[in-house]
Amino acid sequence: MGKPYIYAAITGLSLIAAVYPASARSIIDCDKPVAAKAQDLSNTVDPFGAMGKNNTDVCAQKPQAAMAAPEKAKPINIVATTGSAGILKKAVKGEILPQGENTLRDDLAFKYRIYRPEDPNGDTMVLLHGSGQDETSLVSLATKIAPNALLLAVRGRIVQDGTSRWYRRLTPVSFDQKDIHVEAKAFAGFLKQATDKYKIDLKRTTYLGYSNGANLVGAVMMLYPDMVKQAVLLRSMPVLTENTDANLAGARVLTVSGVSDQTYAPFAPALETLLRSHGALVEARSIKSDHGLGSDDVKVVSEWLSGTTAQLKKN
Fold first, then answer.
1. Domain of residue 152, CATH code
2. Which residue has the higher pLDDT, 24 or 122?
3. Is residue 27 part of a domain?
4. pLDDT (tens digit, 9 = 90+) per residue, 57-98?
5. Which residue range is the domain that position 273 belongs to?
6. In a domain, 88, yes or no
7. Which residue, 259, 223, 215, 262, is CA-closest to 239?
8. Does residue 276 sit within a domain?
């Protein structure tokens, strides 16, 4: 391939990066067909689409957002990619993103992406999305909460009613117990592999789970207590019907429920009681919200982490 051809490909990519910066992308997948967005009663609200009071149509605003502030676009880091047509296709789809190793990986038990901050502080945040979402859904939220942490964003591998989940559900508030055990065990194994591969310090790792993903974190804590030392459980509930002898002494947990969340909020006290009964240090917060996430979650979680993460570093 001649040099002019390569220069042309790179120039084309620069134009794409300038016109459509990654920061302008919405968490909501506006490009998916409506039929593909199956509703899950326990996870019906986009995790970060509720940042404002008004319920505006994010998809309708996407062309304006995409054109905003093109001068802030960062150069695309193309690594080990050949063929200009393939590069352009991936860039348009958003599979090549600036500043990171955020390619979807499938070399371990779960598919995942790694996001490295420009100024890492040694902390790691493991992201577990809600039903019907994917590993990218909580990235925007997490970067606002912990901008200097390595992000390990994981995708649930159960597909039910056309949507990704962490285990099968029977009703909005009852779940397949065998499936929870199988997936919790697989996730614990995945964590061991990922921490070895990426040299992650579990003592400086926070698990950020939303709804279905938060519920899996809670199940992992009860079944594999040594894996989780610090967790943020957003809109969560207990999902295991059995009790275990898990010793959670030393584990720190923040639960955040929405006062208008009619599906999960009634179960929040039971989750907090369960975790405390096994020795976890639990701070329970209830905010003016429904099942969706927003700016109040960022504030509450950031304030909590500023104290608890400091304690973890001392231990």
1. 3.40.50.1820
2. 122
3. no
4. 333 343 444 444 444 333 333 333 333 344 334 433 434 343
5. 100-314
6. no
7. 215
8. yes
Domains in the chain, number: 1
On whether residue 141 sits in a domain, the answer given is yes
Report the pLDDT averaged over residues 271-275: 97
| pTM exceeds 0.70 | no
Q: What is the DSSP string of the chain?
A: --HHHHHHHHHHHHHHHHHS-GGG--SS-TTS-GGGS---TTS-S-TTTTSSSS---HHHHHHHHHHS-GGGPPPP---S---HHHHHHHHHHT-S-SSS--S-B-SSSS-EEEE--SS--S-EEEEE--TT--TTTTHHHHHHH-TTSEEEEE---EEETTEEESS-EEETTEE-HHHHHHHHHHHHHHHHHHHHHHT--GGGEEEEEETHHHHHHHHHHHH-TTS-SEEEEES-----SS------TT-EEEEEEETT-TTTGGGHHHHHHHHHHTT-EEEEEEES--SS--HHHHHHHHHHHHHHHHHHHH-
Cα–Cα distance, 99 to 47 (Å, whole number): 23
Comparing 89 with 280, the larger pLDDT belongs to 280
Say if residues 24 and 63 touch (Cβ distance below 8 Å): no
Please state, as a whole number, how many other Cβ atoms lie within 10 Å of the Cβ of residue 133: 26
Q: What is the largest distance, in Å, between two alpha-carbon atoms of the chain?
A: 67
Residue 20 DSSP code: S
What are the tens digits of pLDDT across the range 9-46? 444 444 444 444 443 333 333 333 333 333 343 333 33
- Residues 6 or more apart whose CB falls under 8 angstroms from that of 79 comprise none
Q: What is the pLDDT of residue 97?
A: 41
Residue in the block written with tokens 């639990």: 282
CA-to-CA distance for 273 and 289, rounded, in angstroms? 22
Strand-strand pairing, 230-234 and 150-154? unpaired
Above 50 in pLDDT, residue 121?
yes
Looking at residue 193, what is its pLDDT? Answer: 96
